[in-house]
Design goal:
Chain lengths: 510, 151
């Protein structure tokens, strides 16, 4: 009797991280006239529940099993399924932790700027969790739309001219991306007759030669859409302005958004166009590495040329997605494993820096976050230490996790034919990032003029500094447990490169 | 690409249910069969042409510099993709989508559900972009997509 109950609970666990945020979002919408304190407490509790659920799911899939939840109990190729494997659970943990700290920062006051901040925030978590868990291509489109719609609202949260202008670009380019996604999904359905990811993998491997060009076209179209979401060169131009101009908690949460694109690229390229996919195998393998390296280079050049701190961090997000996809582009267990170790680290570091930039901007009066000498900030030594830690994390200097992530990526690249390019660009880029952040740091913290005393701003409260410190601590904690974590991400990569288990779990044995 | 898809529409997959419908047509009176066959080909050509034209118009308008044409372009593009999704279930005339013991063949119900979803999402997005474009017009003082000539 006991194992049966366990089986039911575990399969329900797959849908729980999707249900909790959407129900929380609806509840917050209905209770919008309640006192803000109650709404904050409720939103924070739900976000914390999401962390717990994600950790439980991780525990359930840690042994390498793939959990499947069939909605309405329709069997796999006909109904929609939610699938949890190690990768999905890993990204859920990253998202939920990030969301909790971003929300904790948002609750300090910036949630007052717009009416539906908490609703949109929960719906954003809903879209993200759904995108990571779904096992259906069209359903992935729907969750993309959910997370995009929420992100449009969060991006414009608080209003302002620059925000509107950046938001318009962001919305239009993502709508075009959604249309391309539909074209790709439609072509897949027209040729292969299915939208289930596992079933697509089976059908694509057995595609007839006359249909192969169509499948390849659809696959490349899909890759273009994911590259747009992941902000790869040349489709990254929407990102810096959008991220640099939105409110701080939204920018921090958006640090995971580009990773959704990277996740989709990884999922589709290993599952449908993996090495043993027959004629459609390795469709994007030749493209991914050069594009990723170019993205890394462009992101760092952009960061070096930025005039504002937040724009600089937005470009560093572009660079981090370049690094991540470089690792994924290596296509080996060690490469993908290194990339997956790097993913949460870079997300936490970028989010912490976005929050920190908001605090710094708040202290500098009219100078805001422009990289020019300004007044001495309140609690400048705390801000300085946090900035220093964040910079070390994101540049990848020893001893923190950024260094370990980059080291793993470089070690994985050693036996790759393009090793020289990878080593050269990653190491050279690291130097450039170091110089860039050293310059920003010295401008912000050393070249300060005495304040004229007229505009005394209260120093940042400890409560505002805590989420930043916590996110940085998470990054640092990844250093302490680097051994087990990198073993785990390598196991994750191993599971990805053997998609048979996923396909069998979804479609049933045989 | 469109031509290849049209070819697929003609040469259906052997195990597809719509194939029976074809066989049945061929088995019917020759004149009627030819007429329906020509009618289907015409329909396919027309649909492909419409999707192509809508897409081209959509892409052209999206590349314009004012928010209103961009908005229209997005709308055209979503019309095109809706028709495209619909055509991916193959063009079948007068067949039931649900199980019916007397039916000789079926039309594919799934693309209709997909199109419905896409229409709903597209509609919501269009409404959102209209509001955003109006907000941008009000805040930036002009309807240029880059908000140029800021006062």
């Amino acid at each position: 009797m006991r194992p049966r109950v366990d089986a039911v609970t575990t399969s329900q666990l797959v849908i729980a991280p999707v249900l909790l945020p959407v129900l929380a979002g609806i509840a917050l919408l209905l209770g919008r006239s309640l006192d803000l304190r109650w709404r904050r407490a409720f939103a924070l509790t739900c976000a914390l529940g999401q962390v717990v659920l994600a950790l439980m799911l991780t525990r359930a899939v840690a042994d390498g099993s793939v959990l499947v939840y069939a909605l309405g109990n329709w069997p796999a190729p006909f109904g929609i399924v939610l699938v949890a494997d190690r990768l999905a659970a890993w990204l859920l943990v990253t998202t939920s932790l990030l969301a909790w700290f971003a929300l904790a920062y948002g609750c300090l006051g910036s949630d007052r700027d717009g009416r539906h901040f908490h609703v949109l925030f929960q719906l954003q978590i809903f879209g993200l969790s759904g995108a990571f868990l779904t096992g259906d291509l069209f359903n992935l489109f729907v969750f993309f739309e959910v997370l995009l719609l929420a992100s449009y609202g969060l991006l414009l949260h608080g209003g302002g001219r620059r925000r509107t202008r950046a938001g318009l670009h962001y919305v239009v380019i993502n709508l075009v991306g959604s249309t391309l996604f539909l074209f790709a999904a439609g072509t897949f359905y027209g040729v292969l007759g299915t939208l289930n990811l596992a079933d697509l993998a089976v059908k694509a491997a057995a595609v007839s030669p006359q249909d192969l060009p169509l499948v390849r076209t659809a696959g490349l179209l899909l890759f273009a859409v994911f590259a747009l979401k992941a902000a790869l060169v040349p489709l990254y131009l929407w990102l810096p302005a959008a991220y640099a101009n939105t409110s701080a908690p939204a920018a921090a949460l958006f640090a995971i958004m580009t990773k959704v694109g990277a996740y989709s690229i990884l999922r589709v390229s290993t599952l449908i166009f993996g090495a043993d996919a027959g004629p459609a195998a390795n469709l994007i393998a030749d493209w991914l590495l050069p594009v990723a390296l170019l993205t890394l280079a462009v992101g760092l050049i952009g960061a070096a040329g930025s005039e504002r701190l937040r724009l600089q961090i937005a470009y560093l997000v572009v660079a981090s997605i370049g690094t991540l996809l470089t690792a994924i582009g290596l296509g080996t267990v060690s490469g993908i494993g290194a990339g997956l170790y790097y993913l949460p680290h870079s997300t936490f570091a970028a989010a912490a820096l976005f929050l920190l930039a908001d605090l710094i901007a708040g202290q500098r009066g009219e100078h805001t976050d422009r990289l020019v000498p300004g007044p001495v900030m309140g609690r400048h030594w705390v801000l300085g230490v946090l900035f220093f830690l964040g910079a070390i994390l994101i540049v990848g200097l020893p001893p923190l996790s950024g260094f370990i992530g980059k080291f793993l990526i470089l070690r994985a690249a050693l036996d790759h034919p393009a090793a020289v390019w990878v080593l050269g660009i990653v190491l050279g880029g690291g130097l450039l990032a170091l110089l860039t952040l050293a310059r920003s740091g010295s401008l912000l913290f050393y070249q300060t003029a005495e304040a004229d005393g007229g505009t005394a701003v209260p120093p940042p409260t400890w409560r505002a500094l805590a989420p930043v410190a916590a996110l940085l601590t998470l990054g640092a904690a990844m250093t302490l447990w680097a051994g087990p974590l990198s073993d785990y991400t390598a196991a994750m990569a191993d599971q990805l490169l053997q998609p048979d288990g996923y396909v069998r779990a979804v479609l049933g044995e045989g | 690409m469109t031509r290849a898809i049209r070819r697929r529409i003609k040469h259906r997959t052997p195990e597809g249910p719509t194939d029976e419908h074809f066989t049945e047509d061929r088995a019917g009176p020759i004149a009627a069969g030819r007429r329906s066959h020509e009618g289907e080909r015409l329909m396919e050509a027309l649909l492909a042409l419409i999707i192509g034209t809508l897409t081209a118009c959509g892409v052209y308008l999206i590349l314009r510099a004012r928010t209103f044409p961009v908005l229209l372009g997005l709308t055209f593009l979503s019309y095109a993709v809706n028709l495209f999704l619909f055509a991916m279930g193959r063009l079948v005339v007068g067949r039931p989508p649900l199980i019916d013991p007397t039916a000789a063949a079926y039309t594919d119900p799934l693309p209709q559900a997909l199109v419905l979803t896409a229409i709903v999402i597209g509609f919501a997005m269009t409404a959102f972009v209209i509001m955003l474009a109006l907000k941008a017009r009000a805040e930036l003082g002009n309807d240029h997509v880059d908000g140029m000539h800021e006062p």
